[in-house]
Design brief:
Length: about 300
């Protein structure tokens, strides 16, 4: 990335002018950790992304980021601009939402897992309601396995769910907006590495992670028991921290009072993908398209920062 100094481009005394779309591209490059991925999410070419970033640097007369391999590293000025970019883009989008009301009517049904509902859904739902005042948005929250069943059974139109990123679990029509690594952890005060019977903490009978862990335990001949089942992320976190057992958690949900469980040595854990999935029967619905657009725009940005 070429360094652009104010004096070099002849704008030392000129007022800085920022356009929202360049800031949006800049923010997406950071969130996607790369120019190519940002272009794919925004629906523009990699060269267009590079042009937007270069023009942005020229306008403010500062280097914003450097490429290191396939990744990008923000400069101090880039970090400062990112904070302003979030505020500017959010204010712009709220203003557009306020004055650009949809004429769509009807009902659209959304299902999501508890993690999404707890961290991101409220803002997205509120914005959707502002822009589509005559659309009734119905939301159901449950474990991903149940939500996927609702979608396949026609009970909901759009789903935000987690799937293990193995085999064909991620469908060709899914939009993946975040991937996390998985870790098997225990509380710092606990030591279950060599116990005779491993106590497990899971999210319930259809826990996404548990079948993978129990299969590994069975294959190694390690006895195990259910110490606790809880559908809440906060509940599972509290149980692990209190030393009640081990659990599989995705990286954003790890805390400082947890540590790795080494009872099976070095494990190859699959990644977990958060996907936006639409029912096949609703593929051409205007209501579904509108909701999917809101979810895609909001979650692709927010999810990368969790």
């Amino acid at each position: 990335m070429t360094v652009c100094h104010a004096a070099a481009v002849g704008v030392a005394d000129a007022p800085v002018k920022l356009d929202v779309e360049s800031l949006r591209v800049f923010r997406e490059v950071v969130a996607s950790d790369g120019f190519t991925a940002a272009g794919e999410r925004l629906g523009i070419t990699q060269s267009a992304v590079s042009h937007k970033i270069r023009r942005l640097e020229e306008r403010i007369g500062m280097e914003l980021m450097r490429r290191e391999g396939q990744s990008v590293i923000l400069t101090a000025d880039g970090r400062d601009l990112l904070a302003h970019a979030d505020e500017i883009i959010d204010a712009h989008d709220k203003a557009v939402d306020y004055f650009q009301r949809s004429e769509l009517t009807g009902t659209v049904r959304l299902g999501c897992n508890e993690e999404v509902a707890a961290t991101q859904l409220a803002d997205v739902a509120s914005r959707f309601r502002r822009t589509h005042p005559d659309v009734s948005l119905e939301i159901r929250v449950q474990d991903s396995a149940y939500v996927a069943d609702w979608l396949d059974g026609g009970e909901i139109d759009v789903a935000l769910i987690q799937v293990l990123d193995v085999d064909d679990a991620v469908r060709s029509t899914d939009e993946v907006w975040r991937r996390d690594q998985l870790r098997v952890v225990q509380g710092k005060i606990a030591d279950f590495d060599d116990v005779a019977t491993v106590p497990l903490i899971s999210f319930g009978p259809r826990c996404l992670y548990e079948p993978w862990l129990t299969t590994e335990l069975d294959a190694s001949g390690r006895a195990h028991r259910h110490a606790m089942e809880c559908p809440s992320i906060q509940g599972v976190q509290a149980a692990v921290e209190a030393g009640l057992g081990i659990a599989v958690l995705n990286t954003p949900n790890l805390t400082e009072t947890m540590r790795p469980w080494a009872g099976l040595g070095s494990l190859e854990l699959p990644a977990v993908a958060f996907v936006l999935r639409t029912a096949a029967s609703q593929a051409s619905s205007e209501l579904v398209d509108a909701l999917r657009h809101h979810l895609s725009a909001a979650l692709s940005h927010q999810g990368a920062r969790l």
